[in-house]
Amino acid sequence: MVINFVKKGYIFKWLFLLLLLLMFASCASLEPFFKSDKELLRERFTKYWQARIKNDLVESYKYEDIYVTKRVSLAQYIKSKNLLIKYRDFKILQINIVEKDKARIQFELKYTVFVRGFSDKISKRVMWVTWVKRKGNWYNLYKTPAEAFGGLRRHKQH
């Protein structure tokens, strides 16, 4: 019975079908292998800033290098963020991968500072930030707020 099954080629057809099913099932997990580093970095940077705009610090922490290194706890991270700044929007201007595990991103950030008399004004800043690749993923190189705002290029108000 088994010999007839093999002779007629059924086993090879079933194995081929099983292989196809496994390939299709794993497509979602293989997606990063088909994307360039720049595409993956752009996606992670976008998700990071979407979380920051929503003030979802638990989510944005997952995109910080300190999430991987555990150099700063989630509680310390949340305490380090300035709640007087409301991020409004961002626009990526350029992405430069400077080493295989290090990239620089220039972007424009729109935000509002909640200070008496200024809370309705949207400010813009062009900034450069560094992202690093750790364990196969890109992460924002964590800096204190003072360090982060040291990379300012231009300031405009509307």
What does this structure look like?
Helix content is 41%, strand content 32%. It is an alpha+beta fold and 158 residues long. It has two domains: 1-33; 35-157, Nuclear Transport Factor 2, Chain: A, CATH 3.10.450. Strands 1, 2, 3, 4 and 5 form a five-stranded antiparallel beta sheet that branches. Strand 3 and strand 4 form a beta hairpin. The longest helix is centred in the first third of the chain and has 17 residues, at 37-53.
Spatial shape:
elongated
> Segments where pLDDT lies below 50 for 5+ residues?
152-158
As a percent range, the share of helical residues equals: 40-55%
Quaternary structure type = single chain
> What is the element string, with H for helices and E for strands?
HHHHHHHEEEEHE
- Number of helices in the DSSP assignment: 8
Strand content is 25-35%
How many structural domains can be distinguished in the coordinates? 2
Query: How would you sum up the major sheet?
Result: 5 strands, antiparallel
What is the CATH class designation of the largest domain?
A: Alpha Beta
What fold name goes in the CATH topology slot of the largest domain?
Nuclear Transport Factor 2, Chain: A
Task: Using the 3D structure, state the CATH architecture of the largest domain.
Answer: Roll
Calculate the terminal CA-CA distance, rounded to whole Å.
Answer: 81 Å
Q: Give the radius of gyration.
A: 23 Å
Number of strands: 5
| Whole-number mean pLDDT | 81
Derived structural class: alpha+beta
